[in-house]
Amino acid sequence: MTNPFNTQQGAEIGERLNPLVAGSGATDRSRAPRTVQIADGRVLPTRRRRSFPRWFADTGWRHLIGVVMLVFASFPLLYVLSASLNPTGTLVGSNELFRVIDFSNYIELFQRPQQPYAAWFLNSLVIGLVTAAGTVFLGALAAYAFSRLRFTGRRVGLLTLLLVQMFPQLLGVVAIFLLMSGIGEIFPQVGLGTQSGLILVYLGGALGVNTYLMYGFFNTIPVSIDEAAKLDGASHAQIFFGIVLRLVAPILAVVGLLSFIGTFSEFVIASIMLTDPQTQTLAVGLFQFVSQETSRNWAIFSAGAVLAAIPVMALFLYLQKYIIGGLTAGSVK
Amino acid sequence: MSNTIPGAQQPLLAPPPAQLSGPRTATRSHAQTVRGLLIKIALLGVVNAIAVFAMFILVMRESWLIFAIAAVVTVIINVIYLRPGWLPAKYLAPGVFFLAVFQIFVVGYSGYIAFTNYGDGHNSTKESAIESIIANSLTRVPDSPTYRLTVVEQFGTFGFLVTDPDGQALLGTPDQPLEEVDAEEDSTGKAVSVGGWTSLGFGDLLANQGVVIDLSVPLSDDPNDGALRTPDGSSAYVYTSDLVYDEASDSFIDTTGGEVYVDGGDGAFVNDAGRELQPGWKIDVGFENFQRAFTNDDIRGPLLSVTLWTFAFAILSVASTFVLGLFLAIVFNAPHMRGKKIYRVIMVLPYAFPGFLSALVFLGLFNQQFGFFNQVLLGGASIPWLTDPWLAKFSILFVNLWLGFPYMFLICTGALQSIPEELSEAATVDGAKPFAVFRLIKFPLLLVSVAPLLISSFAFNFNNFNLIYMLTGGGPRDIEAGVDAGATDILITLVYKVAFGEGTGRDYGLASAFAILIFLIVATVSIVSFRQTKALEELN
Lengths: 333, 540
Known about the structure:
The complex is a heterodimer of chains A (333) and B (540).
Chain A: H1 8-17, H2 19-30, H3 52-84, H4 104-109, H5 117-148, H6 154-164, H7 173-186, H8 195-204, H9 206-220, H10 223-231, H11 236-247, H12 249-265, H13 268-273, H14 282-292, H15 298-329
Chain B: H1 23-29, H2 34-60, H3 64-82, H4 87-113, H5 126-136, E1 138-140, E2 147-154, E3 157-163, E4 169-173, E5 176-180, E6 184-185, E7 191-193, E8 198-199, H6 202-207, H7 209-214, E9 217-218, E10 227-229, E11 235-241, E12 243-246, E13 251-254, E14 260-263, E15 269-270, H8 288-295, H9 297-331, H10 340-352, H11 355-365, H12 372-377, H13 389-417, H14 421-429, H15 434-462, H16 465-471, H17 491-500, H18 508-532
Antiparallel strand pairs in B: 1-11, 2-3, 2-8, 2-11, 3-4, 4-5, 6-7, 9-10, 10-11, 12-13, 13-14, 14-15
């Protein structure tokens, strides 16, 4: 982190979103600090006190845009936070921002038998965590095979993965519904209406979305590490579970968290699979809750939304740090 | 998430150098540890136990095809993990299994459903349709003999233990016609219990009243013989159907009116007047669903406008978020500017906020009567943000701009910073104006690295179900359309509404035909974009 102007952070968030930028960002970091330069390309020799018009022309207008964007970006979030703290409970009452601060909506949220918010929350967490763990495991196994082993059909396999990830699972929602109702007739434990069945369906998307991301990362771990272990007598399973998995921990975390966030927001398949309110997820439950009587339920919905957003936003911020740490730490010293 | 999970066309990092020894020899030369072996055996044991359990149930249900597939898959899994070598298969098998069942099979199955009339009223086979038709039209035979009845239960299934007028005890369930059994009789000769079944007492009967009254137990294998039903739980009467199925002519005859219903070839029995008996059954209809989609005016018009809007929505979404994101990346790419970190963190928040919640929050903000935009910002206006066809389109693009610009801002910032400074410095020295430097040097370089992400962002928005469905539900609805389509529906929401919508009935066949259409569009787009990028060439 040698860049004195703190412009690196965007690049690093970019890296977490985009492995493409990751490569370039990594080389960028290794370069010497740049010349001091403003965006329009002119090089400023030193920094000195300037007049206001000059300051405004160089930097001030940027702050102006920045403030506008701050309002644009944060307003809906502040609004929902304010609405959740408003005891009047309706949409109209929510229009006066932060007039009163009151936590009664948060209490009532957990006291509605018709809308079992606590159950939804728990369901979303459990389904998200199990899916994330399964996705990471299945994806890591496959990425290891594609990255380290050479076999017939490898190229075709990679191509297939590239193609499959173009087709999101929700396109097959009708077929999934009929398949799961068919499975349910034979195995009610994993059929329509069960969360375990939903997790199985989500795991079907595990390879498609994430293996390619992991494959790229696995390739950056030097094969010499595997070979050294092999010479020392380690079996392939020992190499995979004992060495490689630890070295690729950052990408495992990223894929796991991306999978969790994706599952958390997934609506289509969850809505056709889960019909009993007690088994539903937050996305399905909150949508049905607020779409029925938007205005009357607004404050309670807002409280639910704020609570639901907390784990996801916390993970998101955590994710950024983790990736930065993971990429800079490196594995070979 | 509110935007794509990238990685679709990432340039691959350099390939690892070729391995010194092949994986197969490596496995054989090292003895596996005992612990690893035990774990492997335990896991394989669990998988096999589940598989055997599954196959047992499949045999019971006589689903021979699925049984055969399950058996073959189980054998393959065991061979893969017990045989030395085949290392790639050991690592790929678990993921491929799920991929095959829930993604690849599902695609193929969608294709199959698109060629059937599967949907409400056409759910099952012809045999079960015939049984349902008979069961639905049962009426009590006027001079029916009285069967004395004991309702019995076994593993949650209810059955009738009856004593026929001759004093013979018979047992049957809705799925199993009456058969003679040896039952214990009480002093009046009424059969009261039979081995393996629990007789229901008065209290149990009351608790299960609704279920018991709906039971009908066939008298024999021929459904035309009628069935026993009970109005009170203590005596049963013979009910027969007004509709008699004639196997020879494959038709139903209405015994009350004499009308004949024949198999009309559309998966239902119809009479001369065109009245259909419900339910029908599932048949293959060939290209009829596609034909309907492209030639039936009630469907073609809405489908065309939905497809156009889908493209417009996806393209405009990518364009608007990219332009704003790039603009902001340039604005904040200023070394002297203070407080950039704070701007960045707050501008990223819309991206971190769960996408479905954002759509619902805007649902409240845009509310026509009470929403913040109309009430506070516009001082009590009553603008139909979500219910006017064009305003709803605008609102959706606005919300998607809010959702998507942080992602574009982040990737553009990253891409801008990775462009070497020397290039623009050299151009400046040569006398290029700042805007020319950007337009001729930075922007083309930026596009090279960002273009694949723009394509995957397009693909994501093409199927951005959550935003559309939660904000407008696809509405306002086009009332003249033959399907439940609205002004802001995109193809994927149309699929969902045709397949699972309320009001118009479920039509899985037509919905799958629409899904196939999306497949074809997405496939075309991805093939074109693959050709444009070098992702394929760099596969090693």
